[in-house]
């Protein structure tokens, strides 16, 4: 039985090396078939928390473990070869395609969009390169607004400075250049509804220049890459505004620590300095949010909360642990919109300004 893999020293950075790696994989397949053997792909386990290591000193540094010692085997499929051939042509011609484009190139072969998504991530992990280096883009769902201008790879100038509209997050973050901003911080907003409310209230200019971004719930890769790009370029604080519930906390953790599904690429997708601005479980008591605005935790919520508390990266975040343990004790959660029960404009005119002015984050 022939195991097909990319040479361990083939940590590719340039297009030529990516092409060479793909050629080696195809050569292995052909060699296996010539011997009447069933080709097998040996791939690292890309979906494991073991792939992520948090350095406590300094605790804001996040690395991917060099020792991913759990492997799994994929029986050779025509789907993988097809996508490898598409990637080869894209890299060779220096052109790009979306995962959606790849799926519609042969819907019968792939069966579903999720199959394409998974295989592209497997190939990225196998070649040890970010997915964007394969010239495969994902359609963005995120929005961004505030004190920010930049140039897209095709030369389009994007101006995010508007009180009434937001720009779509680019599908090619790596191609962004000439970033100009005088923002004092970046605010990650969990939900589109909250983002639109802050946009309507012209939040980005009321307190101080800032940049707001939302992934509309669980963030797509491009929204995460954009936050990372801004952090790398502007060197300003990054805050998260999420619901005081296990789902909101997990979304914030995806921006800060990564997701298990993309753990192999966490080092380039995360912003380890993300700070939890709100809504904190302790805020619910401190602000005396009316009880009828609070929601009891479900069994599923409690299970999710317990799971989060067991994540290895939370050992370096005792303040986050205390907030989550308080949620466990009180057995209630709340959406950001619950602050409207105090006053309709409480979020924009009181809560966020005071949080940012007096350091009310953890």
UniProtKB/TrEMBL annotation:
Pfam families, alphabetized: TOP6A-Spo11_Toprim, TP6A_N
GO biological process: meiotic DNA double-strand break formation; meiotic DNA double-strand break processing; reciprocal meiotic recombination
Catalysed reaction, written as an equation: ATP-dependent breakage, passage and rejoining of double-stranded DNA
Main location: nucleus
CDD domains per the UniProt record, alphabetical: TOPRIM_TopoIIB_SPO (cd00223)
Compartments, record wording: Nucleus
Descriptive protein name: DNA topoisomerase (ATP-hydrolyzing)
Enzyme class, first EC level, given as a word: isomerase
Gene3D superfamilies cross-referenced by the UniProt entry: 3.40.1360.10, Winged helix-like DNA-binding domain superfamily/Winged helix DNA-binding domain
Catalytic machinery residues: 104 (o-(5'-phospho-dna)-tyrosine intermediate)
Listed cofactors: Mg(2+)
Organism listed in the record: Monopterus albus (Swamp eel)
Domain Topoisomerase 6 subunit A/Spo11 TOPRIM: 185-356
Keywords associated with the record: DNA-binding, Isomerase, Magnesium, Metal-binding, Nucleus, Topoisomerase
Entry-linked PANTHER family: MEIOTIC RECOMBINATION PROTEIN SPO11 (PTHR10848)
GO molecular function terms noted in the UniProt entry: ATP binding; DNA binding; DNA topoisomerase type II (double strand cut, ATP-hydrolyzing) activity; metal ion binding
Gene Ontology CC terms, in alphabetical order: nuclear chromosome
EC assignment: 5.6.2.2
Highest taxon listed in the record's lineage: Eukaryota
Family classification: Belongs to the TOP6A family.
Domain Spo11/DNA topoisomerase VI subunit A N-terminal: 78-136
């Amino acid at each position: 039985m022939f195991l097909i893999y990319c040479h361990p020293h083939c940590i590719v950075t340039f297009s030529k090396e990516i092409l060479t790696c793909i050629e080696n994989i195809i050569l292995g397949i052909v060699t296996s078939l010539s011997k009447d053997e069933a080709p097998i792909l040996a791939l690292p386990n890309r979906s494991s928390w073991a792939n992520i290591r948090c350095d406590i000193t300094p605790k804001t540094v996040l690395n991917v473990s060099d020792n991913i010692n759990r492997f799994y085997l994929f029986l050779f499929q025509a789907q993988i070869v097809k996508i490898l051939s598409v990637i080869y042509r894209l890299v060779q011609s220096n052109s790009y395609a979306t995962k959606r484009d790849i799926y519609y190139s042969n819907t019968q072969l792939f069966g579903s969009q999720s199959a394409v998504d998974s295989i592209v991530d497997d190939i990225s992990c196998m070649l040890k390169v970010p997915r964007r280096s394969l010239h495969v883009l994902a359609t963005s769902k995120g929005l961004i607004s505030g004190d920010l201008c930049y140039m897209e790879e095709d030369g389009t100038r994007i101006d995010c400075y508007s009180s009434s509209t937001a720009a779509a997050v680019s599908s090619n973050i790596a191609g962004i250049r000439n970033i100009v901003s005088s923002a004092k911080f970046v605010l990650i907003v969990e939900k589109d509804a909250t983002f639109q409310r802050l946009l309507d209230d012209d939040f980005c200019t009321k307190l101080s220049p800032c940049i707001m971004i939302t992934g509309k719930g669980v963030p797509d890769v491009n929204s995460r890459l954009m936050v990372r790009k801004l952090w790398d370029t502007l060197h300003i604080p990054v805050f998260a505004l999420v619901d005081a519930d296990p789902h909101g906390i997990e979304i914030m953790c995806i921006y800060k620590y990564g997701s298990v599904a993309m753990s192999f690429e966490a080092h380039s997708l995360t912003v380890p300095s993300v700070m939890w601005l709100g809504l904190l479980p302790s805020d619910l008591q401190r602000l005396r949010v009316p009880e009828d605005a609070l929601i009891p935790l479900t069994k599923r919520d409690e299970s999710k909360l317990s799971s989060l508390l067991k994540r290895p990266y939370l050992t370096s975040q005792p303040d986050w642990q205390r907030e989550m343990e308080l949620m466990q004790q009180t057995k209630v959660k709340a959406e950001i919109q619950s602050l409207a029960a105090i006053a309709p404009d409480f979020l924009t005119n009181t809560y966020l300004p005071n949080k940012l002015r007096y350091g009310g984050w953890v």
